[in-house]
Amino acid sequence: MTRYLYLLLAIAFISCSSEKESETEKTAAFDFTYTIDTVMVDAGEHFFFLNWGLGISDLVEETQLLYNLNPNSLLLEVVDLRNLSLKETIQLEKEGPNGLGGGFVVGIDKKASGDLFYFDVTGLNHLKPDGTKVGKIELEGELLTSQGLPVDATLDIHGVVSEDGKTLITPYEEIGAKGKMLGLAVLTLDDIKLKLIPSDFLQYLEDFEIYMQENGLTRVSNPEPLYMLQVGEQLILNTSAKNEAWIYDRATDSLFQKSFTSHLTSNVKKGAYETITESMEAFKEEGKKKASEVNFGPLVYDAEHKLFWRFSGEGKTKVLTVFDDELNLLTEELLPENFGIGRKPYFLDGMLYQFLNIDDELAFIRLKPILEE
């Protein structure tokens, strides 16, 4: 069982008013403005599962369809972002030959082919577009330890599957809530061949986690999110705690770091909170302190303009940062203080979509960058 099982998925989102113009901070290297609006999704008679803030969702850009999974009922909600409406729901099976079992769900990876990869605490399931189960891969055990995975380690259950559905790339770590990150793993899914890239580059994350312990045992934790994005042959990783990114290039089999400097926020969490608590009340209180510190969101790729976008926040300061296609920082832009910073923005049709819960209805803040010619 990995540390991220303990992640608190309840995230607060703040509503944003419509059609606001930015106060542009122009630079010689890169100039842009933006507009913001808020849109609702027509659900008809359906009630969307929003409890986890679209934490188990994925977007297929080619079809402009967003897939959001209710982990309790295994109902897959399909949202047409082009028309801002519910397209359909798909009931996944729990039992039987195509069943997904009863493991705690942590993520989905939907491909343009229609294939669905479904991550839970017991491994990785693969479903064909018609719902037929191809198989399931366990992320620890003898098959992997025989190929070099330490016996007390597991592949992380928050990995990324290549677009062709043939390869899983994910960190590997010691088993347990406080297990150390050991590096990256590359697993080919058809023949289950494992390649390990040992590295301690993510080990610093444990310094920022908050634990609630009872009778010497960890009952719940609040870890730092780790984000992974595939762009071509590169896997890009960034975390909420530090202003940097790590890039694994499959073509050259190299792992390297890009560090950034913000002039609008801190560049690393200060860690001014207790990391060990002994009650849920104290755990929540320290979590509030942690949430007030700097938080860097996931990188989002804009293929049309070959740019990366990233939201971040520190207290009332909300920032949009722009990087070029080699992850060189181009500019930072202050956003309205009430802009809701969530865990999973998407880029589609020239706009950044950020999830918003408005009275238990699905909505999005859309930020549209206007690039200067």
Helix/strand class: mainly beta
Mean of residue pLDDT values: 89
What is the alpha-carbon Rg in Å? 20 Å
Percent of sequence in beta strands: over 45%
Biggest sheet details: 5 strands, antiparallel
Strand order of the largest sheet: 1-2-30-29-28
Q: What's the helical proportion of residues? A: under 10%
Q: Low-confidence parts, pLDDT < 50 over ≥5 residues? A: 1-28
| Termini gap | 51 Å
Helix count?
2
How many DSSP-defined strands?
A: 30
Dominant shape? globular
What's a concise summary of this model?
By secondary structure, the protein is mostly beta strands.
Secondary structure layout:
Layout: E1 20-21, E2 32-40, E3 57-60, E4 65-70, E5 75-80, E6 85-91, E7 105-110, E8 116-120, E9 123-127, E10 133-137, H1 142-145, E11 153-155, E12 160-161, E13 167-174, E14 181-188, E15 193-198, E16 210-214, E17 217-222, E18 226-231, E19 234-239, E20 244-249, E21 254-259, E22 276-277, H2 280-292, E23 295-296, E24 300-302, E25 307-314, E26 317-324, E27 329-335, E28 346-348, E29 351-358, E30 361-371
Parallel strand pairs: 16-22
Antiparallel strand pairs: 1-2, 2-30, 3-4, 4-5, 5-6, 7-8, 8-9, 9-10, 11-13, 12-13, 13-14, 14-15, 16-17, 18-19, 19-20, 20-21, 23-25, 24-25, 25-26, 26-27, 28-29, 29-30
